[in-house]
Amino acid sequence: MNTIADLKQQPVAEHKLDLGRFVFYKNISISEVSEGTHVTFEKMADMLRIAENVYGNDTPFVYISNRIHSYSIDPLGYYEAIKLFPNLKAYAIVSQNNRRRTLAVLEKLFMKKPIRVFDDLEKAYEWAAQIIERTA
Fold first, then answer.
1. Torsion of CA 5, 10, 12, 14, to 10 degrees
2. CA pair distance 18, 58, nearest whole angstrom
3. b or e along 80-118 (b: 16 or more beta carbons within 10 Å of the residue's beta carbon)?
4. Which of 63, 57, 50 is closest to 131 using CA atoms?
5. Using an 8 Å Cβ cutoff, are 38 and 72 in contact?
6. pTM score over 0.85
7. Do the beta carbons of residue 4 and residue 124 sit within 8 Å?
8. Where are the beta strands (DSSP E) in 1-136?
9. pLDDT, tens digit, 9 for 90 and up, residues 4-52
10. For the chain, which has fewer Cβ within 10 Å, the N-terminal or C-terminal residue?
11. Residue 129, SS3?
């Protein structure tokens, strides 16, 4: 499976937190959450502050969750996080695990943004770039 390191683009910022690794490109943010983590709104606080510093409320961006590790998510936390970013245009999930891909479909219930599931990070990145082009 591709990781963030496989992308040839130059990041604007990169942060390794307890929650995981977060790489911010001009209009695309990619996360790789740490193994065994339970992701809640509270645990996302540092990452959300960084995203706010990078994108503010005006720069359009797409969030890609590169799920190379196993972890659990509180979907209500996503709902709260999304409210903080009116400039979030879409959300992509990358996973090669069929069970996790199926569970990702449930996340659509909590998202009011376009959401797609991919099995390849580069394909997700290309889709995100197309979303940004259409919103520019």
1. 20
2. 28
3. ebbeebeebbbbbbbbeeeeebebbeebbebeeeebbbb
4. 63
5. yes
6. yes
7. no
8. 13-16, 20-24, 28-33, 38-39, 61-66, 72-73, 88-94, 115-118
9. 656 667 899 999 999 999 999 999 999 999 999 999 999 999 999 999 9
10. C
11. helix
